[in-house]
Amino acid sequence: MLVSGGAFANKANDTLNVAWEREQPTLDYYYQNSREGIIINRHIWDCLLWLDPASGEFKGLLAKSYKIIDDKTFEFEIREGVKFHDGTTLTADDVVGTISFLTKEGTGILQNQPVAWIDRAEKTGPNTVRIYAKDTTPLALLYLSADIPIYPMAYYDKVGPEGMGVKPIGTGPYKVTSVEPGKRIVFERNSDYFKDSPKGQPAIGKIVQRTIPDVNTQIVELASGNLDWIFKVPADQAEKIETLPNLVVKPASTMRIGYLTFDAAGRSGENPFQKLEVRQAVAHAIDRPAIADNIVRGGSTVVHSACYPDQFGCTQDVTKYDYDPAKAKALLAKAGYPDGFTTDMYAYRDRSFLEPIIGYLSAIGIRTDLRMGKYAATRDAIRSSKVPFAFMTWGSGSVPDVDAITAVFFGGGPDDTSMDADVQKWLAEGAGTMDSAVRKAAYTKALRKIADQAYWLPLFTYPTNYAMTKDLNWTPTADEIPRFFTASWQ
Where is 216: in which H helix or E strand? Predict the structure, then answer.
């Protein structure tokens, strides 16, 4: 039973107390790979660009303006007068220095993918920088808006990753004033934050982040008034929190989707899922709305395309499979399995979601031998051509573009279990240009064929439950990256 502790005091002292479960090994963004590290990054540092989460529009951040010279060349005019937290002024040299460090071999950075496309950067004027790509990279602007924060290079050259890891310096809306590794981080509003930032001006004076590994302890702390905000709250606990007068729960859909994948290419050997009718039978056998509404809950929605609906290029105009067990049985019979069959089914998480799926399949005669394992082992089994059928999930790294999901699983790589040459060609076309119209057209063709052939059965979105004091104005986004610099008190 949860007991709410009276009035919340944190609004009065302008301090937002938040908690998450994972300890951060370092605050140097480039040497970590966790979601919590991404959250910290958005508050301490700025990138050249900013992707408005509401409009999907790229705006200049540390860059006052930008131009796409050609598919491999990007030019940025750097803002004048922007200050780092230590009072030094941002220059074009900091931009070039940051890029040069990231592209240098042997640095050991963990954030490799966002910078692997860059060939070099050069200063072309007092406040002008050009960044050159190795090849056409449609996600270049996304990376430059989220994953390549600009460091003060004089400071970084002096203190290195170890120094930046405990005393980070950026230009962002909040600065770190205290770090207790594994316990807490204190952020204070950057009173000198530049007024033209599309991020807006931070309203809350101080943020105190605590690391609390146990979610039940987080909930007790929230209910007692010692915390103002937590996330990843289990659905059953969220329902209890909603009964407390001083708290509110905000469920939000995320970019993570659940899906069933079939070995349509026969990589694991001859199997029933090589037949289109069998894959379609599975698609018609499962009542996805019922699972999303009653089992997953929290605002989960059914997915029809092999991507998250709000990602760039993710058309929803594809073949849809309604719940129709009679049609599913007829398709199985047409495929030569009037009495069904038995198959191995691999998975690595969410047995409670799997149980109704297995039940629906059993009702049409598909019997499953469930093989639960850890994510890495399950992924490796798929890549090693040992898996005929699996329940998996993918979060796209919170990248709002189909290139972060559809191309991964249908582009001919190790995770491609359909190996459709047409789909691979269209995805390559979409990835080979910066022209958004051409990209959308190519991705639409690929996604429609994936759905027509039922290479995947996309199931539902994964929601995240956020719980917080009613004193807080804050809105979640699908990328699961809380932006506390947009928050304010009621």
Answer: helix 215-224
Give the whole-angstrom CA distance, residue 54 versus residue 479. 12
Higher pLDDT, 77 or 12: 77
Query: What is the rounded CA–CA span in Å between residue 285 and residue 321?
Result: 9
CATH number of 254-463: 3.10.105.10
Q: Tell me where in the chain the CATH 3.10.105.10 domain(s) lie.
A: 254-463
The answer to whether residue 3 scores a pLDDT higher than 80 is no
Residue 240's Cβ-count burial label (10 Å; 0-12, 13-18, 19+) is middle
What is the residue-averaged pLDDT of the chain?
95
Secondary structure E strands in 112-205: 118-125, 128-133, 174-180, 184-189
Residue 452 DSSP code: H
Give the tokens for residue 26.
Answer: 């370092």
Q: What is the pLDDT of residue 2?
A: 59
The pTM assigned to this predicted structure is 0.85
- The reply to whether CATH 3.30.1330.10 applies to domain 39-173 is no
- Helices (H) and strands (E) counted in the chain, each on its own, are 14, 18
pLDDT reading at 476 higher than 60:
yes
Which residue, among 8, 144, 2, has the nearest Cα to 68 in the 3D structure? 144
CA distances from 338 to 70, 285, 328, 363, 454 (A): 57, 14, 11, 13, 20
Identity of the highest mean pLDDT range in 4-8, 258-262, 400-404, 475-479 = 258-262
- Asked whether the CA dihedral 44, 49, 52, 56 is positive or negative, the reply is negative
| Residue type at 395 in one-letter notation | G
pLDDT of the residue at 54: 81
Considering the chain, tell me which residue range(s) the CATH 3.90.76.10 domain(s) occupy: 39-173
Look-up: residue for tokens 């799997």? 354
